[in-house]
Amino acid sequence: MSVPRLDVVTIFPDYLAPLDLSLLGKARTGGLVDLRVHDLRAQTTDRHRTVDDAPFGGGAGMVMRPDVWERAIAATAVDGDASPDERELVVLVPTPSGRPLTQAFAQELADELAAPDVRAVIACGRYEGIDARLVPALRERADVRRVVEFSLGDFVLNGGEVAALALLEAVVRLLPGVLGNPDSVVEESFTHEAVLEYPVYTRPADWDGHEVPPVLLSGDHARVARWRREQSLRRTVERRPELVARLDGLDELDVVTLAEAGVVRGRHGRLIGPVTIRSAHEGDAALLADLAATTFALACPAETTMGDIRAHVAAHLSTEAFARHLADADVTIVLACDVGDVPLGYALVRTGASAAADDGAPAGAGDAPAELSKCYVLPRAQGAGVARALVAAVVERASRDGADHLWLGVNGRNAGAAAFYARAGFAVVGERTYRVGEVDHRDHVMVRPLPAGVAD
After folding, report:
1. pLDDT tens by residue, 329-358
2. What angle, 0 to 180 degrees and rounded to 10, lies between the N-to-C axes of helices 319-327 and 285-299?
3. What is the Cα–Cα distance from 44 to 248, expressed in whole angstroms?
4. What distance in Å separates the CA atoms of residue 450 and residue 149, rounded to the nearest whole number?
5. What mean pLDDT is predicted for residues 291-319?
6. Burial class (CB in 10 A: 0-12, 13-18, 19+), 8
7. Structural domains present in the chain
8. Which of 54, 170, 39 is nearest to 108 (CA)?
9. Judging by beta carbons within 10 Å of its beta carbon (0-12, 13-18, 19+), is residue 163 exposed, middle or buried?
10. Name one GO biological process term (predicted).
11. What is the Cα–Cα distance from 254 to 251, expressed in whole angstroms?
12. pLDDT tens, 77-129?
């Protein structure tokens, strides 16, 4: 039975000395994995052992030669063995532009290397990288199963050796027999789903006044399991919120834990959050126009024609219109965003003279009214508290700008929106006409007082 084999090619073989240490070293000396390190310079043909040259087209730095690399990769098959290793090659090339190294990727490689007909070579580039012709040339070779360019993250290293060590640490431990207790990987971060591992503790239970959570000392295995699950979910939301959208198979207690951490299910079942509210800036005009074009149509009564909607959007919700709003000192626009600054909705509030209705301030709007002119949320985020967060942000900003009341108009046929604003503290004080395209609509005019003592 063949042993999983990985070869590393580098100009700094001593950099790979850690392969003799810890779990990797034990797996290596125990015959569970065949790890070999090769000096790229051994395949040079000149007396200076040159592996690089100046880049065509000019520029800083040096580029590693593809011919030297091709010879070095091929030479790994005959490294001191009586007969060549004829297994197919998986060539792994560390590069900032490669596929991210994830637990799923590591498991994929481990499964592949456990098969008897494949081995891997890691090509550790240096300088400005390896000549770009090498990867496509390797992919054309009959003895190469595939070439994978991979990355540790969005940063630059001096060379690929650190990435090679990280890859080997991640992959070798997953090979058959390497871990004494296979259950060790069962509850690790990213093993089965996109969650971080819970915090772990050991003796002493009270270390210099820092105590272990009592639940871990209870002996109640069900409570311990639940606590660990909650900690994993909370850690994931706090430290890696971009992973939240990938969570699946949640039970009711999971949903409660996530909600407490600011992540809730939207009306269509998608996990939303943690939601952030930020002020829109000049570069958001096109984004706001896209949001408005989508959400305005959904808020209109069913009998509103698409022609009228398009005419209204073109006249009042275009990129140019939002650019004017963003340049107006009396207008504040706030955006609600999901993880990664992905927009979920927006609100626009007017203060000063522009906050008065066309025929004057509405009844009960106070001496210094502000107008909540627009507040819209994408369908996938509805039911997730995004609209409440937008209204809260608008209330805070309008109060800060000196307004004493906030008013708005909501389509009289949109009972759901009217009910939402009523729950948010708005009361109907009258009616108004609002034109969409060539059709007049009746709006409820609603007003809510702003918190006393907040205004400057």
Report:
1. 999 999 999 999 999 999 999 988 767 655
2. 110
3. 52
4. 57
5. 90
6. buried
7. 5-185 (3.40.1280.10), 206-261 (1.10.1270.20), 276-449 (3.40.630.30)
8. 170
9. buried
10. tRNA N1-guanine methylation
11. 5
12. 998 777 899 999 999 999 999 999 999 999 999 999 999 999 999 999 999 99
Q: State pTM to two decimals.
A: 0.81
Structural contact between residues 279 and 333, judged by C-beta atoms closer than 8 angstroms: yes
Residues counted in the chain: 456
Burial class (CB in 10 A: 0-12, 13-18, 19+), 281: exposed
Give residue 362's identity as a one-letter amino acid code.
P
**CA distances in angstroms from 390 to 86, 153, 398, listed in the order given:** 63, 34, 12
| Cα–Cα distance, 93 to 91 (Å, whole number) | 7
Report the SS3 class of residue 145: strand
Q: How far apart are CA 139 and CA 119, in angstroms?
A: 15
Structural contact between residues 358 and 304, judged by C-beta atoms closer than 8 angstroms: no
| % of the chain residues with pLDDT over 70 | 94
- CB-CB contact of 332 with 349 (8 Å): yes
Q: What is the DSSP string of 10-61?
A: ES-GGGGGGGGSHHHHHHHHTTS-EEEEEEGGGG--STT---EEPPTT--SS
Antiparallel, parallel or unpaired: β 369-377 and 405-411: parallel
Rounded Cα–Cα distance for residues 337 and 346 (Å): 9
Annotated binding site: 125, 152-157
Handedness of CA 305, 307, 310, 311 (dihedral sign): negative
Report the binding-site residues for S-adenosyl-L-methionine: 125, 152-157
**Strand 118-123 and strand 88-100: pairing?**
parallel
The residue whose two tokens read 């002119």 is 373
SS (H, E, C) 154-211: CCCCCECHHHHHHHHHHHHCCCCCCCCCHHHHCCCCCCCCCCCCCCCCCCCCEECCEE
- What is the DSSP code (8-state) at residue 82? S
How are beta strands 210-211 and 206-207 bridged, if at all? antiparallel
Q: What are 205's two structure tokens?
A: 């239970």
- Across 280-364, the runs of DSSP E, i.e. the strands, are 331-338, 342-350
- Chain position carrying tokens 């790994």: 76
Parallel, antiparallel, or unpaired: how do β-strands 405-411 and 439-449 relate? Answer: antiparallel
